[in-house]
Write a structure and sequence with these properties.
This protein is an alpha+beta fold.
Length: about 200
């Protein structure tokens, strides 16, 4: 039995304490409920007029999460992440002329019938980012990152990392690392900048 599973079991047992019982006629009942009133993971009490700085942040990882902890850490992929990071730091690793190497593939992906993207422009910055300005015709903000991953797939190399920086910006680093294939190691740094509605 791994440590993550055991930690999850301990958390599940701890998060269902005995029911809090406070006599309603006790002089400090209301104050005690406001301070420590918990039953399961639902706070019982009343909001004060000032924000409670001591309130616990929401520990849920998604809307229906009730365990607050996963099965283990992600160390199994750490060597691959470290290898990508090592290459990212190499001088001259990012390729030149993304207009020739990347843009034709990105234009084709944006023009696909089921694409939610309309390409407005592209520019290479001094920081190495190849920035695409886009209109997004999809349904919601949550779908932007999923649609971005599909767009990045049109230029993806064997190593790829995608991160949504804010609701309207998605960054990607992708490249060929040592041993990935017949060509020399190289990479691309791309930013999608979505025009806000």
């Amino acid at each position: 039995v791994n440590a993550g599973y055991q930690a999850r079991q301990r958390w599940q047992q701890a998060r269902h304490p005995a029911e809090l019982r406070i006599a309603v006629d006790a002089p400090d009942a209301l104050a005690r409920l406001r301070e420590v009133g918990r039953r399961g993971d639902v706070l019982i009490g009343w909001p004060s007029s000032e924000p409670d700085e001591s309130a616990e942040p929401d520990r849920r990882r998604w809307d229906t999460d009730d365990t607050f902890i996963g099965i283990t850490d992600g160390a199994a992929i750490e060597p691959a992440v470290e290898a990508l990071l090592e290459h990212v730091r190499k001088p001259g690793w990012l390729t030149e002329d993304p207009h020739a190497h990347l843009l034709p593939h990105l234009v084709k992906a944006c023009e696909a019938p089921d694409s939610p993207w309309q390409l407005l422009g592209a520019e290479l910055g001094e920081d190495g980012f190849y920035t695409l300005d886009l209109d997004y015709t999809g349904r919601g903000k949550i779908d932007i990152v999923r649609a971005a991953v599909r767009l990045f797939a049109s230029i993806a190399e064997p190593a790829c990392y995608v991160r949504q920086v804010d609701p309207f910006t998605v960054d990607c680093i992708t490249g060929v690392l040592d041993g990935d294939g017949p060509f020399a190691t190289h990479g691309h740094l791309i930013r999608l900048r979505v025009r806000q509605p």
